[in-house]
Here is the input.
Amino acid sequence: MTAPAPELSTLKREHALHLLREMVRIRRFEEQCAELYSAGKIRGFLHLYIGEEAVAVGVMQALGSDDAVVATYREHGHALARGVSAGAIMAEMYGKLEGCSRGRGGSMHLFDAATRFYGGNAIVGGGLPLAVGLALADRLLGRPRVTACFFGEGAVAEGEFHESMNLAALWNLPVLFCCENNLYAMGTALERSESETDLSLKAASFAMPAWPVDGMDVLAVERATQHAAAAIRNGAGPHFLEFRTYRFRAHSAFDPELYRDKGEVEQWKRRDPIVSFAVLLTQRALLGDTDLAAIEDSVRAELAEAVAVAEAGTLEPVEDLTRFVYSERPPQ
Ligand SMILES: Cc1ncc(C[n+]2csc(CCOP(=O)(O)OP(=O)(O)O)c2C)c(N)n1
Ligand SMILES: [Mg+2]
Here is the structure.
């Protein structure tokens, strides 16, 4: 099965600027996080999504507020694009009480029930059964919702991937499996861990519609997702999209990147999803010089505010350390 071609002619300027702005927000947010990490303000693990922004932004366009999102530990961009506030995310990065997970999760465990953003899951493949469970609940309650589940290509080596794909297909559950294939799982290239590197074929073996998508092209991501999400809402069952993308930065803060050539990284950077989309919009006369400057200005202001929220935030008192180990809800 092939993805429908993006229809550039119907692209509206306002929507185009929204897509660009969302990608710029994620890029600048993470650049700021990298700086704050070096300054010792953010600690623990930090996995940057830089280079992959078109995937999260494109997919979110096809989801409504009732739908659910499950992501991995590389999820700052997904949380931002889903509508979790930059301040709540930055405060979480700082480990402050004002963070979306009360400062207890940090970078890898962003969570926000209000936007149905179910993590932030640090275990590779751990989000997949969660997504299937959310979709099963929707199905049993007759709610026409979609659960979008993001995971890296490294997760396809996990048993949970196969169990989740099988149950979702068998029970016809409304899950959109969004595989972010950035070619590496930490330092392991896909062809070093998988005998079959065409990931759509794996999904097809569960009798699930699946196709590859150019993950560096936000319009291609959006169209493919809209197509798949509409089919899921119409009862066609789970779909699998393989987004072919690339992370420009190291796996995490502790990675000397000995497993890939600098030349390969440079080659992918030439397909930077933000730069190439901005060029395309300029060519189509949908973007002027002042538009880009205005986007950068507003993003800068939003980020300054987010850092201010995090800086001014409070650390949870030591006395609260054991709270939430057990539910605080009174027995029913
Ligand atoms: C079950 C499990 N095994 C190992 C790890 C350690 N680990 C953290 S990230 C990672 C690589 C995952 O790669 P991929 O799924 O491709 O996602 P990416 O980091 O490329 O976004 C591994 C093995 C883990 N977090 N969970
Ligand atoms: Mg990967």
Remarks:
- The longest strand covers residues 175-181.
